[in-house]
Every structure is written in C-alpha cells, then in structure tokens.
Amino acid sequence: MATTTTTTTQTSAPNNTTTICFSKYLHSLSQTPHRLRKRMLATWTPDQELNQVRQRSGAEMKRKLKWYDLMALGVGGMLGVGVFVTTGQVAFQTSGPSVFISYIIAGISALLSSLCYTEFSVQIPVAGGAFSYLRLTFGEFVGYFAGANILMEYVLSNAAVARNFTDYLSSAFGENDPRTWRVKVDGLVEGFNMLDFPAVALILLLTLCLCHSTKESSLLNLIMTVFHVVFFGFIIIVGFCNGSTNNLVKPKGLAPYGVRGVLDGAAKVYLSYIGYDSASTMAEEIQNPSKNLPIGIVGSVVITSVLYCLMALSLCLMVPYNEISKNVAFSMAFRQIGWEWASNLVGAGASLGIVASLLVAMLGQARYLCVIGRARLVPSWLAKVHPSTGTPLNATLFLGLCTASIALFTDLEIVIDMISIGTLLVFYLVANALIYRRYVTISNNPPFQTLLFLFLLSSSAIGFAMSWKFKQQRWGLPLFGVSTITIIAFFNYTVPCLRHSTGWSMPFMPWPAALSIFLNVFLMTTMTKFSFQRFAIWACLITLFYLLYGVHSTYQAEEMGTGEDEVDPSSAVQQTKLDNIQVL
User: What element of type H or E holds 397?
Assistant: First the structure.
C-alpha cells in the first residue's frame, strides 16, 4: 500500500511542476506593463557594470592582450570580410569602377563611429561593446535592441563569409565553378538549396579553437593577419603594375551607375567594417585599456580603409567592371590577365584571410552574448566564463552552432543588405549615446536640450536622405544640408560640454558624433525596401522575446533581488523537485 502511494506521488509530481511553472509564468505576463515601466529605461552606472554585473560570470576574463594584439584583431576581422566578400558583387552590380570611392565613404563613416566606440570603451572597459554603452546611457530596452541586432549581424555575416570561404578554397584547387563543392538539394527553396559542408566544418573548428584560449586564438590571428597584409601587398602591386587605367573609364566611365550607385555601394560595403567593433569587446582582456584601446580600434580602421581602397582600385585596373566575377572576383581577375598560378594562390590567400576574419568575429559575438547574459536578458548560463580557459564557453558553443546551421543553407545575397542595415542602426545609436552621455551625464546639462538636438539632427538627416532618394536635389538637398550644419553649430555654441578628466575622449564634440549620425542615417536610406521589410520582421521578433522573457527575467534579478530568472522553466522544475522530496 505504501509502495502504491509513493508511486502515485512520484507520477503526479511532474504534473504539479508543470502547473506551477505555467501558473508562475502567467502571473509574470500579467505584470508586463508594470515591469516594462520599471525596466525599459533602467540604467546602470559604469561602476556597477564594471564590478557587480561582471561578477555574474563567475571567473573573470584574463588580461593577456596588448595593443598590437587588438590592432591585429581589428584588421584581421575586417580584411577578409570586406574585400573578398563584397567587392566583386558591388563593383559588378552597384558602383562599377568607382567601388573604391564607395569604400572611402564607408571608411569615413566607420572612422567616425570607431571614435565614438573608443571613448566608450576607454571609460567603460567591459566586453559588452555597444550593448553595454547603450544600456548605461538609454536604458535596458535600447541596449537589448542594439545587442540583439549586433548578434544578428555577426551570426549572419559569419555564415555568409564562411560560405565565401568555400568559393575561394575551391578556386585555390583550380575549380572554376564554386558550386561544385556544395551539395544541391532539389526540394529546398532557391537560395537555401546549396548545402555548404566545408563552411560548417570551418565554423565548428574555429568554435573549438575559441573555446580553448583567447591568447592563443589572438596569436593565431596575429600570424595570419601579418601574412594577409603581405598577401594584400602582392595583389595591389600586381594590379597596379599589370592593370590598365582604360578599365577605369571603359565601357561606361568611372561611375557607370552615377553618384547614386557610388552611395548605394557605400552602404553595401559597410559590411566590411563590422570587424572593428569586435575589438571593443576585448576591453576586459586587454592590458592598460585606456592607452591600448584607442590605438587598437582607430588604428585598425585606418589601416583597413587604406587597404580596402587600394585593393578595390587594383581589381578594377585589372578587369573591366562588367567582367568582374561576383563570387571570386580576385581569383578570376588574375585568371583573366593570364596569371593562372597566381589565381590559385589568391584563392588560398583569400581563404586564409576569411579564416582570420571569422576568428575575430566569432570571438566578438561570444562576448556580446556573454554580457547580455550577465544582464539576464537571455538565460544566465550563456554568461558563464570557464574558470580554467577564461573564455565564455557556453556563449561560444551556442553561437557557433547557430552560425554553422545558417551557413549550411543560406546564400550571401539573401543576408548582405540585412546585415548592413543592422550595423548602421547600431552605429547610429552609439553616436547618439555618446552625445547624450557627454552633454547630459558628464556635463550635467538638462536632458531636454540634448534630446531636442538629437531629434532635430536625425530629422534633418532623414530629410536630406529622402530628398536624395526621391531625386529632389534642387531644393531638398540644399535645405536639409544647410539646416543640418546650422543645428550642429547652434547646439555647439549654446550648450557647454565637459571632457573626461581621465582617459581618451572625442575631440571637437559634437561634430564627429553628429556627422556619424548623419552618415549612418543617409546610408541606411539607400537600402532596398525588401531589406527594411526583413529588418522589421526581425525587430518584431526580438521585441516579442523581450516582452515574453527578457523584461521578466531582469525584473526578477534586479527589482526582486533573487538573481535568478523567474521565467526559466528549468530552475522552477528543479525547485519543485526539491519541494516534493522534502514532502515525501
């Protein structure tokens, strides 16, 4: 009889557990409006972010990196992505021979954004990058929204870059058609029907490498980046020596798609500059961050921008823009000028460069997710740092599997515009946050003045961009161009600004940050309607996740002081099991 009672009790325990979990979750949802009011605009101080929040990862990340490690990480992260993935496609379809001018415009915008990142990273040296900067300035939801977009752009771009690795690797072995290394599945939709197993293998291999050690991964990247820069030099010299300036003006001139094509191309090649913000995520692992972070971040952007422009120019000197290959542009260019052996070499070198950029990007994405986990906006187990390796092991493995899954199916063309719009939005938000922090938080000015300035500046930038998009150059561009300069000048003259007493800070404020806002808005409006539709769907999904999980998790951790995720079913199950054992 006793045995029957025990069995019945054990059988009913899972049902009780499920009922309790569901009841608690429904109660949490009923409190959503109240919790949103408490958490959406909740901010942390830099001291809390550097100490209290960071301790949630358990073990600390190890400070082993120097300035040259950071610069190599920034350069390595950007080089492979930009030149080998986007140049051929943008030159052929969007900008023509003037693609190097597109890189100059995108580089200026990236440099301004990197200056904003640099000031934040020096003052708040944590691994969260833009997520931490925005959460401290504008509150939890804006930080979460930016962090989710950063993770989206990292995962999608890494998947696309890994597939491009297969293109160049097949070229290194003499294959003219990169699709020969992929497996076609007839039942799948076009664009998702070419399975790429080499890309998956590469991502999984790098994931295991990053789980082992940051310093060893950085050393590997440093070696590959030095080789990569030498390899770039070879391509640039050969292109300038064996190319012809006639290819820059034939068949339809330097800018066959007009100025509009140059600017549209700048928005697309902006994907090339994703890597530098991953350098800011290494703030917890670099020695003397106040000195080494500015050198590493800004230096990597400048070096990369110069190399991008020279590489794009050398490509267009070797081959007319209408004969450039969209997928393996540089390998095919050498083949077209008769350098068959160099074509295979370029394929191998480009493959190595892509490996370096993937290594850095995957390094950065794991640290972003780790810090978002510390904030309890995603399950807290993603925030754990392994005590022996000093790396965010769970976040690295989770994102590695996500990236590999997307790389298996998805073509580059499907994700490139969505990546760019997410990147530009995050950089736009960081520039806004820097102005607000400098003028309100540090200078103690009333928030209304700065918020009004940011609103008017963004509105004027949108007006200028819309005038350009809808071809209202006669009156729209002069009106909004002059109004933008007037707004910045008036704000600079009337509102005082203090600089940080310690560490590096942006000079000539608010001009660099304001110009960054203007350029990011302008480049965003050059995106296609389809890109905005895809982005809107993504924005709705991540907002829904915040409403269903994030706000309740952070409310439980911060407002109720439990430090645990209220809506985490696994923790509720474990607690109920303990209660049942005590009852029995």
Answer: helix 393-409
